[in-house]
Design brief:
The complex is a heterodimer of chains A (322) and B (370).
Chain A lengths: L17 E10 L2 E11 L2 E6 L6 H8 L7 E6 L7 H4 L3 E4 L11 H10 L5 H14 L15 H13 L5 E4 L8 H16 L3 E6 L2 H4 L5 E6 L2 E7 H10 L2 E7 L2 H9 L4 E6 L5 E6 L2 H13 L4 E6 L2 H11 L4
Parallel strand pairs in A: 3-7, 3-8, 5-6, 6-7
Antiparallel strand pairs in A: 1-2, 1-4, 8-9, 10-12, 10-13, 11-12
Chain B lengths: L2 H21 L5 H29 L5 H5 L7 H8 L4 E15 L5 E16 L3 E8 L2 E9 L3 H39 L2 H5 L5 H32 L4 H40 L4 H12 L6 H4 L3 H8 L12 H7 L7 H25 L8
Antiparallel strand pairs in B: 1-2, 2-3, 3-4
Helix pairs in contact in B: 1-5, 1-7, 2-5, 2-7, 5-7, 5-8, 7-8, 8-11, 8-13, 11-13
Classes of the chains: A alpha/beta (322), B alpha+beta (370).
The complex binds adenosine-5'-triphosphate (ATP) and magnesium ion.
């Protein structure tokens, strides 16, 4: 593996970045991503969020397959609108599960390398190396159309890494891989990340990627919920305040009881005194406290999560995506 | 990145795309369109040669002898002038002479028995059927079997009315719209967008692939049908045509077929980028080209058909009995000079490709709504 090219200095302040500034993308009325601002340093970065949260949209934006309605993107100081320059140092394994009908795995990878201006022999040797990396040499001369799902996944990965890009974007790359290949693939990501390349991958299961990632970006409903090194993000999730609406007869009394709990950060009483909005840092402590209050004989008519989205995300991620 | 690198890249893209352009399952019917006239002319030639051989084997008559046969000649006179016919049949039939109404409202029809006879002669070019009634010639029916002039006229007509207006038009629609739209349907377009190539280089490569395929297919089809039109004719007549205007005619037919591919190709490539449904651009363009004769001068110049029709070496035959509206539709108002016509097609093409380059830069991968 040759040393990756980097833009100028390797000093911490001058590391090459993948930058999004206030990026928004709408599909007609449907929100894709909204006001995303990111500065992704080299290393392994995982984009985590449930289905439909905007992971693919963000990756397509980064690679110029779609263009932002607002905001700007720079990948190592190159705009995705300049594919001639940018795609030399970027590889993208998409979620689109299609390959040209005519191609064998080997032809598929070798052909895409020819567009880099490589002589055929060199393109073929590089293609072969990439297929070796994803353990697909046995099936290399079969038609991609006849591959299994996991093999198609791997051939797309081979196509993305064949030109040894500095920025590797991978949409759910671990999906459908068997444990052995998965371990090999993860080892490769680690190696590439350690070489100072960008490895940006997506997953909808935090547990799948948190041990291998240098950074995690949590995304929900097209918005970045949390971002940073994995420890920070964990704390941020578990401390993310949740909001609840409580319906009850004696709101002032219950509010004063809740105020004694130190996980409660804010309480807003309704004017009708029949309900309140509560902010808590800990769901568990909050539900325990509610249980105690109810046991003491106070009537609580209902508890409704107020910010369902973030709450659901919390549940989802901590619950392991089940 | 140098221009040279980009050109090589465009050519690499074209080579890869050739497969799609030539052999796409969605566009196999293009070959039917391209080969249709060839099949017609060759079929016509085979039938003609077959009849020629059969009739010539049974004895040919001289043209002069056939010309000397006059109406009201008797069968004996004809046999004396022209010799033994190729076929000679006779029959008897009742012929209605008159019809009267009776007082009671009934009808009375009078018939007469007639001795009918038909003789067929062949002079190597014309087949002459002679009909006799009671031994007297009543009808002389002449059909040209091998008429070189007529066949060349037919070729000119087929070329302009069918080949340029329909075959190449719809063939280019099939080939060129498939280049981008086909990949959107297959969900493979993004692989091109992920290559380190400018979008306009991609456009150029794809256009080149479509152009190569359509030009090979349609000039090939035109040349084949031209050959099919020539071969049954006497070799001396064909040789004379070749050493005269023939070579030039063939050249301009092929040139106008190729330029039609250049022009229509660019239009449909652009349409494939902008629109999902191929019917709409086809209908609009067909209408545009159709009413071209009625458009003001400047707009006429924005038509592919106007130019490529001006390049055709032989004016297409028009039947003066056609309704005048149809006549105007079919014939170009005032043909452009050849060099202007070539430049005109190229200018229209560049204009369209320039617009397409703008579109391809803005296009996004969005398979879900296909
Ligand atoms: N081509 C499109 N047309 C319309 N809406 C779209 C399109 N692509 C995505 N969306 C919408 O944008 C939002 C984000 O979708 P996106 O595909 O980015 O999610 P994702 O995080 O990749 O989901 P998944 O985990 O299922 O891959 C969703 O609401 C989706 O419905
Ligand atoms: Mg996705």
């Amino acid at each position: 593996m040759s040393a990756p090219q980097t833009n100028g200095n390797r000093g911490a302040a001058n590391r090459p970045l993948v930058i999004c500034e206030e990026v928004s993308k709408f599909y007609g009325e449907v929100l894709g991503v909204n006001r995303v601002t990111l500065a992704i340093p080299p290393g392994i970065t995982s984009l985590v969020g449930p289905n439909g949260s905007g992971k693919t949209t963000l990756m397509n934006l980064l690679t110029g397959l779609i263009h932002p309605d607002r905001g700007s993107i720079r990948v190592r100081d190159i705009s995705p609108r300049e594919p001639e320059r940018m795609m030399r140092l970027t590889g993208y394994a998409t979620q689109f599960d299609a390959a040209p009908r005519w191609a064998t795995g080997f032809q598929f990878v070798a052909t895409s390398l020819e567009l880099f201006g490589l002589p055929r022999a060199e393109a073929e040797s590089k293609a072969w190396k990439a297929l070796e990396r994803v353990s697909l040499t046995d099936a290399a001369h079969r038609k991609v159309a006849g591959y299994s799902k996991g093999m198609r996944q791997r051939v797309r990965l081979a196509q993305a890494i064949a030109h040894e890009p500095d920025v590797l974007v991978l949409d759910e790359p671990l999906n459908g891989l068997d444990p052995l290949v998965r371990a090999e693939t993860i080892a490769m990501f680690r190696e590439w990340g350690a070489q100072g390349r960008h490895v940006i991958l997506s997953s909808h299961v935090l547990q799948e990627v948190d041990v291998i990632s240098d950074q995690v970006i949590l995304i929900a409903n097209g918005m970045i919920v949390a971002e940073g090194e994995i420890r920070g993000v964990r704390d941020e999730i578990s401390e993310h305040p949740s909001q609840y609406i409580i319906r009850c007869r004696d709101a002032s009394r219950i509010a004063s009881l809740l105020f004694n709990e130190d996980h409660i950060t804010e309480i807003k009483l309704n004017d009708d005194r029949l309900g309140m909005l509560v902010m808590t840092r800990s769901r568990e402590d909050f539900s325990r406290a509610l249980g105690r209050i109810a046991l003491d004989g106070h009537v609580i008519d209902g508890v409704i999560p107020a910010d369902e989205n973030v709450d659901a995300l919390y549940e989802y991620l901590i619950g392991g995506g089940r | 990145m140098t221009t040279q690198f980009r050109m090589r890249q465009a050519w690499a893209i074209a080579r890869i795309e050739m497969r799609r352009a030539f052999f796409s399952r969605r566009a196999l019917w293009v070959y039917l369109l391209a080969l249709f006239p060839a099949v017609i002319f060759i079929g016509h030639g085979i039938a003609m040669t077959y009849r020629h051989n059969r009739w010539a084997g049974q004895g040919m008559t001289t043209a002069a002898a056939l010309d000397s046969i006059n109406p009201r000649d008797t069968a004996e006179e004809v046999l004396k002038k022209a010799g033994k016919p190729i076929s000679d049949r006779d029959w008897r039939r009742r012929k209605l002479m008159n019809e009267e109404e009776t007082e009671k409202g009934g009808r009375i029809r009078r018939y007469e028995m007639v001795e009918g006879r038909m003789m067929m002669y062949y002079d190597g070019r014309r087949r002459v059927n002679l009909f006799f009634e009671n031994g007297v010639l009543t009808e002389k029916n002449i059909r040209d079997e091998m008429n070189f002039d007529q066949d060349r006229q037919a070729y000119a007509g087929v070329f302009q009315y069918f080949y340029l207006r329909l075959a190449i038009f719809f063939g280019c629609l099939g080939i060129f719209m498939n280049l981008f739209r086909g990949e959107m349907l297959d969900k493979t377009l993004h692989y091109w967008f992920l290559a380190p190539a400018r979008r306009d280089v991609l456009l150029a490569g794809k256009y080149l692939a479509g152009l190569t395929a359509s030009t090979v297919i349609f000039t090939g089809g035109a040349a084949l049908s031209f050959a099919g039109m020539l071969w049954p004719h006497e070799s001396t007549a064909v040789a004379a045509y070749w050493s005269g205007p023939g070579m030039g005619h063939l050249f301009w037919y092929l040139a106008s077929a190729a330029l039609a591919c250049v022009g229509y190709g660019s239009v449909f490539l652009a349409a494939g980028l902008l629109l999902r449904n191929p019917i709409i651009p086809a209908a609009i363009l067909l209408l545009w080209e159709g009413i071209n004769g009625f458009l003001p001068d400047l707009l006429q110049k924005l038509s592919v058909l106007y130019y490529v029709q001006s390049l055709c070496p032989v004016p297409a035959p028009t039947d003066p009995s056609m309704p005048p509206l149809l006549l105007t539709l079919l014939s170009p108002a005032s043909p452009a000079a050849k060099e202007w016509a070539v430049l005109g097609v190229l200018a229209v093409t560049l204009l369209v490709l320039w617009a397409a380059a703008g579109a391809v830069r803005r296009i996004e991968i969005n398979y879900s709504t296909e």
